# Entry
Amino acid sequence: MENTSTVKELSLAERERAAVIGPGHTFATITDKIASIVLHEPSPASWWLGLLIGLTLLSGLGLSVGYLLFKGTGIWGINIPVGWGFAIINFVWWIGIGHAGTLISAILLLLKQRWRTSINRFAEAMTLFAVACAAIFPVIHTGRPWLAAYWLFPYPNTMALMPQFRSPLMWDVFAVSTYGTVSLLFWYVGLIPDLATLRDRATAKFQKIAYGILSLGWRGSAVHWHRYETASLLLAGLATPLVLSVHTIVSFDFAVSVIPGWHATIFPPYFVAGAIFSGFAMVVTLSIPIRAIYGLQDFITLKHLENMAKVMLATGWIVFYGYLMEIFIAWYSGNEYERYMMINRQMGPYAPFYWALIFCNGIAPQIFWWKKARTSIPILFIMSIVINIGMWLERFIIVVTSLHRDFLPSSWGMYWPTIWDWMTYAGTLGLFLTLFFLFIRVLPMISIFEMRTIIPQAKVAGVHK
Amino acid sequence: MPQIFHRSANIYSKASIVGGVLFAGLALTLILTISRSSYATQQNVNRDQPVPFSHAHHVGGMGLDCRYCHNSVEISSSANVPPTKTCMNCHSMVWNESPTLEPVRASFRTNESIAWTRVHDLPDYVYFNHSIHVNKGVGCQTCHGQVDRMALMAQHSPLTMEWCLDCHRQPERYVRKREDVFRMDYVPPSNQLELGKQLVAEYKIAKTENLTSCSTCHR
# Structure
């Protein structure tokens, strides 16, 4: 628990609290509001609609992966010279989106940014689902996922084969699986007290048993809370370096190779910033409809949305700086291939995508300099979509324009995704939506017990005004 | 508020922690064991053949050399499964009315090959070459076992890649003198490692990094 020893600190903290939760809430109203979404309220029509869209797209994933297994990767648009296509573009895009969850849950926890409380639960869930979507691509990208075991994991197989430990793709496996594991643990540990609340409030027998098992015998004793605090701090400590390491290693997939457009030292920081940028955009995309549908404007306030807009403005600038630096270095290197790569990006066949990327990630987010824009729901929602598109375009540009004009003009070519590429991509969006809608149906999407700690009543005890 | 679970649920929940770890370990062990079992590798499984040809009788009993039938083993990637005519060299004279050998005679009459069941079947993406192995001092028996004792042919070795690499990583543990390659009763000498190193040098067997390079076997 936060130590509020002086009156001055308290009043500052109180002012912040007042902004991150609507007025008039008590312990009971918070618990009632969040728990009843799961336990008692019937699902609104928009929930069913969302789930239906998710399941429809998901069935497209089943179809396209099924056809991939039957036919092979020839159904995709990849070929020489562009051998890396949608699979890696979407992998990087999804992994990037996952970053906001860890940032919010770990780094903002350690920095005691209490406004994180109402968005951390579903941001963490979003992380897990994004990692699940991302993981699909490396597994299926050869069209033979049953072989994935031995080229992903070192284990004593009958071929006496180990993966290539000098390859950043191998580091990726460890980075992403560690990230997935720690995120899952962090999310689950944070859920335990709330699961116990649901267990105690559930009326149906099945719900009692299910939440009872999941809450691991939580009784809310002082010992339990002490252990909970220790575990969540330790996990926050473990997760913090992961926010930086995972996308650093993803960027090594490119930076360690010697392809103009990939071989750049700026990649790690610029990828990490891009990941947080896109992650926050996705949190905004999700939280705006959710707070409207479930009437959670008191919990996810404009203050939250404004803070996220500020994070997007800041990380957007790091990303934009990265784009500018790529241009500068291409010129400064004096290397004709580097220079050609950049000219080709800006004026070649994929130029419209490049300029769309510059607009989405570099120009458009500047609107967040204005408080009016940061607190306007429609602008925030549109901008979050624009940024998601921009970050996808970034990966498309990096992957495709760097490969499609090889060193020798005789091996130049174009890459266009096929219908199966698009169906697979849309399918992972469907998986994400489906998982997310199921999550908000069966688990408390906002941390009940942490929300209770940010109302003023939680803090006054022991402090003399 | 009534309890949802009986008191015994405590012990189940604790046991599930240990049980989960044990189960994962057991599952992995099981997978690794099955993938090396004869069920997966077909090792030591006798195959039915259209004619019950006995290596024990022909090699062990009568002393035929391997190369009498497998005559391209020293010069080609394939050791060669002999044509019916090779069988008929003898069987036009001996056992020439045996009902067991009728398929052989039928093949000879109709000029249609006998459809032997393949016993040693490497995947198509492995480019195995018999001649290089035989010429560098790898005995037939090292991979195929004591064929002179097999009434029906069985695959002696697992033919897994780790089995191939076992020798490619340390050929000195297995090579023998060229004159001993076709001997079935060969027993490695007590100074095998010493002899092996000497033979590796003498026969100019490639370095381990070449022998274990992907494209040595997968082209």
Summary: The mean pLDDT of chain B is 92. The longest helix of chain B spans residues 9-36. Residues 55 and 147 of chain B are 6 Å apart (CA to CA). Chain B is about 45% helix and 0% strand.
